[in-house]
Write a structure and sequence with these properties.
66% of the residues lie in helices and 0% in strands. With 105 residues, the chain is mainly α. Helix 1 packs across helix 4 and helix 4 runs antiparallel to helix 5. It is globular. The two termini are 13 Å apart.
């Protein structure tokens, strides 16, 4: 749930995850005028789809830190072990957190 606060910085996080300017614009074009939480969730979903299975939450934590979200990176790192597929589990948890937060508002 703590990743929801990173949503306003979704573009910086996307750049840190290796997304190009055009790819980030494609997210806004696809979703139209929506809440930044929706953009962030779509970003994480796309990152999950293009990320190798062996990638760990450390890459996501590093992207958060380089986007100025050091506190969130720290919180993510201390969350403990994930399942045998850490990147997918992490991103699924993140998108679920942003999604459940959207549904509660």
């Amino acid at each position: 749930k703590f990743l929801k606060s990173a949503a306003p910085g979704w573009r910086k996080i996307g750049e840190a995850l290796g997304f190009k300017f055009e790819e980030l614009n494609a997210i806004t074009l696809k979703l139209g005028l929506r809440d930044v939480d929706d953009y962030f969730q779509e970003l994480l979903y796309r990152w999950l789809r293009r990320t190798p299975d062996h990638t760990t939450k450390e890459i996501l934590a590093g992207a958060l830190a380089s986007a100025g979200e050091e506190r969130l990176a720290y919180e993510l790192r201390k969350e403990g072990q994930w399942s045998s597929d850490p990147a997918r589990t992490a991103t699924q948890q993140a998108t679920a957190a942003t999604g459940s937060a959207n549904n509660s508002t």
